[in-house]
Each structure stands twice: as structure tokens, then as C-alpha cells.
Amino acid sequence: MNTENEKSKITHLRTILGYLSIVFAMVFLGYGIIVLGLDPHIPLIFATISAAILAVVIDKQSWEDIEKGMINTITVAMQSIIILMIIGMLISAWIMGGIVPTMITYGLDIINPKIFYFAAALLSSIIALSIGSSWTTAGTVGIALIGIATALDLNLAITAGAVVSGAYVGDKMSPLSDTTNLAPAISGTTVFEHIKSMTYSTIPSFVIALILFLIIGLTSGGAGADVSSIAEFKAILNDTFVISPLLLLPPVLIVVMVIFKIPAMPGLLLSVFLGGISALFIQTGHTFSEFLDALHYGYSFDTSSLTAYSPDVVDNINDLLNRGGLDSMLWTISLIILAMCFGGVLETTGFLDSVVNSLKRFTTKPAPLVATSIFTAILINIVTADQYIAIILPGKMFKEDFSKLNLHPKVQSRVLESGGTLTSALVPWNTCGVTMSTYLGVSTLAYLPFAFLNLINPIMEIVFAILGIGMFKTDETTTK
């Protein structure tokens, strides 16, 4: 009995300390980012220190264990970190090789400013569905769309929101996506049952998002577009780069490599190589040394000879093309490491488990269970900065609760995607939030109000649970 009482006291204490750690983190991050205008890095360090102090001083936990926990948690993000570095090189290689300028030039020829936001979301969704990766979509096609929006003088935050919405709905519905395979594996259903289940809430959510982007475009899109500026924009690209349909092959090749199940890293490295071939043999005036330098530090676009063009257009081109390189990802990588340290402290100390377990009292009925699962996934995205943990942990914690209510595992897998995958891109220090922001050149908080799919889908999931739509039973194939 004494042992049970001791365990209960420890659990109660860690629940309190867990909530305190989260509150401290929100205060540090909110004050630092919103009030002082800081990057999230230093506030996250203070949040990590405060959680560790609570664990060591009040809960009497070992610093050595906490330190090991932080290191172990960082290793979870190592694959993402390596992919980030490769895509940093890919961006500079594709700009230097004229691939991104070619996509921008042809995009300016075919996309109407009035439907641009709608088209950006739709195109991003098709690419992400084809390749199963929101990151690669944003780092390639997304950059081209930002370039087109820049030339058309459209709102970059709305453009980024459209890219994120499209990239995540495509990623979410693609059988090639890692999260689309992870969620059903955790809940105990098949990938295609999971995808079929997601259509109930995801497709209506995306349709609403597309309608909103269309309305915004028709009412304001292209209002500031200057035909002469667009002509200058295209002229600079044509004067500086060789623009050719041949340069559209590398993006197509990415889709082909995914179809043939080539792993992400080798596939992306091959794309970097193709960018290098284009930079050295199709474009003019580049040396091998300059290409390697661009892979490291990013492509440097020389605007000194563009005196005949409008300074505003030249500045836009300069901002768009001076980017990429391994070095450009170090800000993002350092933020991911610090965020994983904070998450590692909460996981190792048991604070996070205690907080999540305290939420289980709300899981006795379907609608509260769905809402609690989504809230928990969002909370984990915030405190651990990792979408995979935001799928795995609530998946394990609430799996039995879904089973007790006779809900099919494909209901839980759908909920895990809505709460874990989609909201990850809305957290400024989450691996997905910082990646989208870095690739697109728009801060997470700036595009957040326009990431309509990511905002609408979790809410629709809860509404559908209340209405009983798509709440499949384990012994039924129809809704309640």
C-alpha cells in the first residue's frame, strides 16, 4: 500500500512539474518571440534549463540521466537534419543550374494572378501526393511558387500558406509518405484503410481551403501585379540563365525515383548532381569550384550588371536567388537540436507521460476522445518539436480507449494524422515549422493564418466526431 501511495505521489508530482515546464516554456517562447522579437533558440534554452532544474531540484532526478535523454532524443531527428542539409545543397544547385528559374519563368507564362493561390495549393498537393513528401515539395516547387508570387507582387504569407496546405494534404494522402505509413502502424490498421478513412475529413477540409484561396485571389490577387515588372523579372531570368524545357526533367525525375522506391537521401543527392550538371554544362560561366562553394554557402547572384532594370525588381530577384547551401540550414538545424533537447528533458523525466496520462479522464466518449487525442498531439508537437513523437505517443496512450469504445483503428489513425502531422507545420520551433519557414522564406507565424488545411482539418475532425460522421465501428463498414 505504501508503495502504491509513493507511486501515486510521484506521478502527481511529475504531472504538476510537467505542466509547470510547459507553462514556463510558453512564457519564455511567447515573451521572447512575440514581445522581444527574438528567434526561438534562446527562449528554448531557458525552457530546457527550467525543466531540468525542476527535475533535479524538486523531483531529485539524476542530471546524467537527463543529459542522456536529451542526446537520445536528438538522435531521433538526425535523419531529418541530414535531409535538411541535402535539400539546402539541392536549392543552391537547382538555382545555379537554372532549374528553379525555368520553373518560375514557365509558371509566369501560364498562371493567372487571380487564381494563383488556388493553383499554388492545388499544384503543391499533386506534387506531394506523387512523391509523398511535404518537405521536398516545399523545397523545390514551393520555392518556384514563391518566386512567381514575388514577380506578381502577391502576398508571400498567403502563398506560403497555400504551399503548406497543398504540400501537407498531398503528403497526408500519399501511400508513399512516412507519416501515412506510421499512423496506421501505430493504431493497427492498413495504409489503404487509413487513407480511405482520411478522405472523410481531409477532402472536405481541402475543398474549403481551395475555396478560401480562390476567394482571396479573385478579390485581391493580382491587384498589385505590374505587367512591366513581370516582363522585367522574366527578362532578367532569361538574360542570366538558359531557360529550357529540358531543365524540368529533374523535378520529374524526383517523382520517378519515388515511384521506383529509391530512398530519400540517395534520390535527393542525385537531384543535386543533376543540378550540378546543368550549372556546369547548360548554364554558362560557372566553374566546378564555384559550384562546390554554392553547395556549401549558397548561390550568389551578381546584380551589378542589372542597372538597366528597376531597382525593386532587381531587389526581388536578389532576395529570391541568393539562397540555399548547406550553411543556410544551420539556423534551422540548431533550432531543431534545441527543441529536441527540451522534448528530451520532458520525456526522460516522465513529465510528458504524466501530463498525457492526466488527460485520459476525458476519453470515455468518442467525441471527447477524438478531441483529447488531437489536443495531445498538438501539445506534443509544441513541447517535443517532432511530428513522429506526436503520432506515436498519443497513438500508444489512447489506443486502448478507442478499442474500448469499439472504434475501428482507422478512426484513430486518421485522428493521429490530423492532430500530429498537420499541426506540426504550425509550430515555429517544430522540425516541420522551421523547415517550411526556411524553405519558403516566410516565418511560420506569418503563414500560419493562411495554412487553411492545417487549421481546418483538426477542427473538422472534432466536429465530425460530435456528429458521428466517419466514426467507424470495429464490426461495421458504415458510419454511425
Describe the structure.
The structure is a single chain. With 480 residues, this protein is mainly α. It contains 23 helices and no strands. The chain has helices at residues 2-35, 41-58, 63-76, 78-96, 99-110, 116-131, 134-151, 156-173, 178-187, 191-220, 227-240, 249-259, 264-281, 288-297, 311-321, 330-349, 351-358, 366-384, 387-404, 409-424, 431-440, 444-447, 452-467. Helix 1 (2-35) crosses helix 17 (351-358), helix 3 (63-76) crosses helix 16 (330-349) and helix 16 (330-349) runs antiparallel to helix 21 (431-440). The longest helix has 34 residues, at 2-35. It starts with a helix and ends in a 13-residue tail after the last helix. The mean pLDDT is 85.
What would the keywords be for this entry?
480 residues, mainly alpha
| Residues in β-strands, percent | under 5%
Mean pLDDT over the full residue set? 85
Distance between the termini: 44 Å
Number of strands: 0
User: What count of helical segments does DSSP give?
Assistant: 23
Q: Globular, elongated, flat, extended or rod-shaped: what is the shape?
A: globular
Structural class by helix and strand composition: mainly alpha
The helix content, as a percent range, equals over 70%
Radius of gyration: 23 Å
Short description:
The chain has 480 residues and is mainly alpha-helical. 76% of the residues lie in helices and 0% in strands.
Show the helix and strand layout.
Blueprint: H1 2-35, H2 41-58, H3 63-76, H4 78-96, H5 99-110, H6 116-131, H7 134-151, H8 156-173, H9 178-187, H10 191-220, H11 227-240, H12 249-259, H13 264-281, H14 288-297, H15 311-321, H16 330-349, H17 351-358, H18 366-384, H19 387-404, H20 409-424, H21 431-440, H22 444-447, H23 452-467
Helix pairs in contact: 1-2, 1-17, 2-16, 3-16, 4-13, 4-14, 5-7, 5-11, 6-7, 6-8, 6-10, 7-8, 7-15, 7-21, 8-10, 9-10, 9-19, 9-20, 10-20, 10-23, 12-13, 16-21, 18-19, 18-20, 18-23, 19-20, 20-23
